């Protein structure tokens, strides 16, 4: 059922949360099947995912699903903390920010939402976000620019909009999307079984079955990232219109929400905001690959539905410092608004992630045991640097443009090098199949060695074994 109001939106979000969890388990099963190849090569090569999919799921499907559920819950619960840390959110007290804290508490109580933690992001761009739920893990954060540029009524409707996302479960769905994306990123960063460096091309030259394993590993990695991005983009655009309507219903100030959107629309991007675009009050529209409806569309909806309450000359409360108050406020309701006026400004240029210094296993273990905080920072820096982004222009195998020709050349060389002397195609297929490992390493491998099968001297016998 399409979300047409507050109750149906909450019901749809509960359903959406289950769907995202299902996508997460699917992506994790794909990820786990590839990640387990290294272990299963040593202990159970006959039941690798690429050798016997049904046997793999029969033996390892349920344990992998339990691991997926545990990891999902851990990342899901830590979503608000991750946002707070990455955006350097400061938690003010009532004494430090009486205006912000007072308005936020009043709007949350009016909406029936337990007051979450409140935060300020010290950037001049106007924006706000909501994440998590409840007073412990929930968070409503606003930028310094928002506090400085909006009067009290405008600030109240923006906070009511964000609190509505918490009330109707939008933040739960976004946290689930975050868990899916982070797991996909962690896998693609730490997956050694894919072509990322020219030195890895030597592996299939020595062990031909690794060619198919590494190509499929890259493809599964790319597929898991695609699932995560699809889940993020499929968040319903209707949630913004419903949150706007809820804010108007609670404050009875459509004129304040209208003018707040005029001030904020297209101007809210700041350093670090792109990673959390789906959480923001103002972000990229769906036409630009984002998750927000166009600003003009939101303005038209507010003006149409709140016309009875829309009085542009209506006085509004403003307790900002005198130097922040405008000399004259011109009403914008009733003026024709050009969509070009709300074309999003690009976020300020952030410093590109630097490649961390490569640590040896001994250095990494020592750092983990002696300085846990620095160890976590190092791992986060590695993930940030090596993360596959949509701008990388990778193909369906996960190969970036610079690796496509070398991988194709290496594949052709392997086919020529290991082509059987008798021209038996089945022998070549068996030699490149991941099932080769189960034959050589399994209990029925007999006396044939890996080196002898690779050399081709007894290729026909290897094909028959």
Tell me about this structure.
This protein starts with 5 loop residues before the first helix and ends with a helix. The chain has helices at residues 6-35, 37-43, 53-77, 79-86, 98-111, 134-137, 144-149, 152-167, 170-190, 202-206, 209-233, 238-251, 254-264, 295-305, 361-370, 372-386, 401-417, 425-432, 435-441, 450-455, 459-464; strands spanning 117-121, 128-131, 139-143. Helix 3 packs across helix 9. It has 2 domains: 1-350, no CATH class; 418-464, no CATH class. Strands 1-3-2 form a 3-stranded mixed sheet, sandwiched between helices. By secondary structure, the chain is mainly alpha-helical. Residues 444-465 have low confidence and may be disordered. It is 57% helix and 3% strand. It contains 21 helices and 3 strands.
Helix content: 55-70%
For this structure, the quaternary state is: single chain
Radius of gyration: 28 Å
Task: Classify the beta-strand content into a percent band.
Answer: under 5%
> How many angstroms separate the termini?
56 Å
Strand order, main sheet: write it out. Answer: 1-3-2
Number of domains: 2
- The number of distinct β-strands equals 3
Biggest sheet character = 3 strands, mixed
Q: Quick summary of this structure?
A:
With 465 residues, this protein is mainly α.
Question: What's the topology here?
Answer:
Blueprint: H1 6-35, H2 37-43, H3 53-77, H4 79-86, H5 98-111, E1 117-121, E2 128-131, H6 134-137, E3 139-143, H7 144-149, H8 152-167, H9 170-190, H10 202-206, H11 209-233, H12 238-251, H13 254-264, H14 295-305, H15 361-370, H16 372-386, H17 401-417, H18 425-432, H19 435-441, H20 450-455, H21 459-464
Parallel strand pairs: 1-3
Antiparallel strand pairs: 2-3
Helix pairs in contact: 1-3, 1-9, 1-11, 3-9, 5-8, 8-12, 8-13, 9-11, 12-14, 13-14, 15-16
